[in-house]
Amino acid sequence: MSILNILQERSGSKCELCASEKDLSIYKLPPMPVGTVDDSILACATCIDQIENPDNVDVNHWRCLNDSMWSEVAAVQVVAWRMLTRLRAEGWPQDLLDMLYLDDENLKWAKATGEGLEEEQKVIHRDVNGVILQAGDSVVLIKDLKVKGSSLVAKQGTAVRRISLDPENEKFIEGKVGPTQIVIITDYVKKM
To answer: Which is an annotated GO molecular function term of this record (predicted)?
Structure first.
């Protein structure tokens, strides 16, 4: 059974955030969207657009979190925490946030994108040219890199697609070189 089918079955073919039945697709949660059932939700185009584009947020749309934040699905809880944190200045989201409980592992996952931190507290990853990197970006290696613990040498010019960011260290990103998942120092990559 495909991930989409499993998510449709889990959600009853409704957006797991607002219960809309229109324009549904898989949303893979950053910062490390592997694309499994556990790190994905079924969401409508409206929710996805507002999650990915903070300038498009309609605060009243997110009143739906009053119901969906109680989901047993960790990924839904994480998105609810992130959106409530983003909107907490409105008043009512802070009340919901005070009621929402996430275990330590899921809270760490929710905070991994820097949601809830002030701009000066966020960990910002930059490539060799100072360009800001985000989860899911593609980068190119600017020099040959020996991979510790293996005989692999990642060659200059190798593309690393769909990177994930280390939430605690702005110098580290992760990505696949061939079949191997490796940690790469941002000083040796440039954004594609």
So the answer is: hydrolase activity
Tokens of 55: 């300038």
> Does one domain contain both 133 and 82?
no
Domain membership of residue 64 as a residue range: 3-112
Q: For all residues of the chain together, what is the average pLDDT?
A: 87
pLDDT digits 0-9 by tens, 118-155: 555 567 788 888 888 887 788 999 999 888 888 888 88
Number of domains within the chain? 2
Please name the residue that has the structure tokens 């079924």.
42
118 belongs to a structural domain: no
Instruction: Evaluate whether 190 touches 142 at the Cβ level (below 8 Å).
Output: yes
Six token digits for residue 136: 């899911």
Instruction: Specify the pTM.
Output: 0.64
Q: Count of CB atoms within 10 A of residue 34's CB?
A: 11
Using a 10 angstrom Cβ sphere, with 0-12 exposed, 13-18 middle and 19 or more buried, the burial of residue 8 is middle
Q: Greater confidence, 162 or 58?
A: 58
